Amino acid sequence: MGNGFVQLIQSGKLLSFEELKSTYHKLIMKTHPDAVGSDKHLKRYLQLSTDYEEARAYLAVFRLTQGKREERACKNHRHAFFKQLHLIESLEMPYAFHPEESSEKLRVAKETAMDELRSWRKELAELYDSADKEYVRIKTEKPMGPYLKHALALNVRPLVNNLIGFHLTGRGLYAKQARQNLSGIMHQLTENRCVALREFLSLLLDDMRNGAAVLE
To answer: What span, in angstroms and rounded, lies between the C-alpha atoms of 199 and 104?
Structure first.
């Protein structure tokens, strides 16, 4: 027949230890030899104690699992993604850190960003991975020529930071600044074969129409 207490938990009819204990005591009173006046329910009475302890253990795990599911369901993965982008940008800021000291933090931040993106918009995960590789490439290229090859990274970085700023603060000023000189930046990305980065940034810019992540 199975454990009746566990079945009630699974069906949502018993959701707390108080409810479980109350149900157990009611059944005990209906099967206890002294209450019934005979031993006809003795086997059931003895089994109830075992079932009750098993159900208590099951309920503890059940409540923990449900709590984690609710936490995941309620989490703002869009906001969490932009928080990780902010951390990544700070860790990759030129001349502001020792790469060997921050490499592990950066690795974890990028993995976390990818996890949050998959939870927010799974279909963009592969594009983000390619875009990040292109972004790292232009940020680490050695300067060349009188205007320096780093000019592209120096133009893209403010755009990324304005996107992040908009989603973490909700201030419209960041959205306005993100669109400044946009056509020139996108042209530069195309010229430098940063196709994935251009597409990913374009999608993030379009997503701003849905409002700031912090306000969700």
So the answer is: 28
